[in-house]
Recover the amino acids of this structure.
RNA sequence: GGCGGCAUAGCCAAGUGGCUAAGGCAGCGGUCUGCAAAACCGUUUUACACCGGUUCGAAUCCGGUUGCCGCCUCCA
């Protein structure tokens, strides 16, 4: 099977055919940098991170562009509150964004353009739209005329008449038609501004993505992504502008991720359930967050909750325990995988099954099902009565299969010991030497079959968060999770 | 009002016409263990919202009903 993607434009799954064979250009709407990113941003970032990782692993040469909106009304508003200028505020939150993405293991995009660095490109596009009759100037503001663009509404599947009828917002009286939107906005006194043929001002929100995507990927490119909410009006408007200006189709595939709710409710500041990425990471490991966010199909709504995160933790702990068992037998994993590890997989049954589900519109939930299957297989193998020497080479292969596929999901890249170290909340109240001493004492008692004393020692350690595990090679210990 | 989505076991979640409907979590029973832990095996009364239709055959397609949600305004 070849790679299939759900295209919001056609409302169907389609076989993915890139414009240039083997190459993919993808543009994803990034964040408006006026505040810290929340876990909804994390979902979007991780979904497209996995899309890019997967396409690369499948052998595509991917050019990934993700922008920063570093000038808009919200930024101006916030800067007025904090007393900073907009550029300083934006810079601060761009840095915070990078920190968050780094901790989540989200790879940088190849090109990360900022709106304020592409004002000239936007002005060019607006000028061209005016020349072609798709836009009109009223005072110092430029509007896009949706009635002039025939296929307006096609992307989001709406009729302009329906929308106009149901409009809930007071219409700007300068507009010729209620659905028209701003391409260039005149600056009020004290607002940040750039020079333009229509007076000092700033670009409208939608024009930046049209201008920057076309600049870096060409007027017609492969994939355009973003959150479900951006479909209308943002993407509809982006498409209209770009196609009107360039006269060719814009993005061929539109990919939108579903929304994240928190304990069943939409995240909003008024409800007070707005969870930033850094909030979440104080309670959960980044890998837990990633596993959770990938456990449901990317287009479906997903509910973030304490109980769901704890379930995720249990599953992830099992996976890492298994990796730790493997490591004890065959040593640490050395990643020597090439970049296109899901391209030529031959008769590797596991990878083929993984590709089969992931090729179907990036079915990460099904992919994770396979990961858990593999974990069970590996545990079975270790528990099997076969000699250790017999299973070594098999374990090497099984672990590589597991970690290769996980790599496409951005999971399990760290060492198990690091994971456990980070996830353990209950710090031991006793020093490691003390624990070792008590284990030796308990061993003596066990030899003498003094079970009462042995159990008492185990109980005492358990109260301090130390779990003992008796095995054939002696007694090991770990902290309770 | 307009447009769209979703409904699968105790919970989470794949599956879109046909073998025993993935996987995870939780519970229970068992193997192992002195007892545990971990792991493995088994199991959790009729799990596909309801009604009707198409079909030899539907969780899957079509129509309707109910419920939940999103977008239509800044929003990942």
């Amino acid at each position: 099977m070849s790679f299939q993607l759900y295209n919001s434009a056609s409302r169907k799954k389609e076989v993915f055919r890139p414009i240039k064979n083997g190459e993919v250009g993808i543009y994803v709407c990034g964040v408006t940098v006026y505040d810290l990113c929340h876990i909804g941003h994390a979902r979007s970032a991780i979904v497209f991170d996995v899309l890019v990782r997967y396409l690369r692993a499948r052998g595509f040469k991917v050019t990934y562009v993700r922008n920063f909106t570093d000038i808009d009304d919200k930024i101006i508003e916030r800067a007025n509150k904090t007393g900073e200028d907009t550029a300083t505020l934006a810079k601060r939150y761009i840095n915070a964004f990078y920190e968050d993405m780094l901790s989540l293991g989200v790879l940088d995009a190849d090109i990360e353009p900022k709106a304020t660095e592409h004002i000239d490109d936007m002005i060019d596009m607006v000028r061209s739209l005016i020349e072609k009759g798709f836009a009109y100037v009223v005072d110092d503001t430029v509007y896009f005329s949706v009635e002039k663009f025939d296929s307006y509404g096609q992307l989001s599947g709406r009729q302009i008449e329906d929308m106009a009828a149901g409009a809930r917002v007071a219409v700007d009286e300068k507009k010729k038609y209620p659905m028209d939107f701003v391409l260039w906005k005149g600056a009020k006194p004290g607002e940040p501004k750039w020079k333009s043929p229509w007076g000092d001002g700033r670009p409208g929100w939608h024009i930046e993505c049209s201008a920057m995507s076309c600049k870096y990927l060409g007027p017609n490119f492969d994939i355009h992504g973003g959150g479900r909410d951006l479909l209308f009006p943002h993407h509809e408007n982006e498409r209209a502008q770009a196609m009107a200006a360039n006269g060719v189709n814009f993005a061929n595939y539109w990919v939108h991720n579903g929304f994240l709710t928190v304990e069943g409710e939409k995240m909003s500041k008024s409800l007070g359930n707005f969870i930033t990425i850094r909030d979440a990471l104080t309670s959960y490991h980044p890998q837990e967050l990633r596993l959770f966010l990938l456990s449901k199909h990317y287009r479906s709504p997903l509910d973030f909750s304490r109980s769901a995160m704890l379930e995720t933790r249990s599953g992830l702990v099992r996976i890492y325990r298994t990796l730790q068992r493997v490591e004890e037998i065959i040593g640490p994993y050395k990643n020597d995988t090439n970049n296109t590890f899901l391209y030529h997989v031959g008769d590797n049954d596991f990878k083929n099954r993984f590709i089969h589900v992931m090729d179907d519109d990036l079915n990460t939930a099904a992919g994770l099902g396979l990961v858990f299957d593999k974990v069970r297989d590996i545990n079975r193998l270790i528990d099997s009565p076969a000699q250790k020497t017999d299973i070594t080479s098999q374990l090497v292969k099984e672990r590589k299969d597991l970690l290769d596929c996980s790599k496409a999901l951005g999971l399990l890249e760290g060492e198990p010991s690091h994971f456990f170290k980070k996830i353990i909340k209950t710090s031991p109240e006793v020093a490691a030497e003390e624990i070792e001493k008590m284990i030796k004492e308990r061993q003596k008692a066990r030899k003498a079959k003094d079970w009462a004393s042995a159990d008492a020692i185990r109980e005492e350690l358990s109260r301090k968060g130390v779990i003992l595990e008796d095995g054939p090679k002696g007694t090991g210990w770990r902290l309770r999770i």
User: Anything to note?
Assistant: The mean pLDDT of chain A is 92. Chain A has three domains: 4-257, 319-423, 432-479.
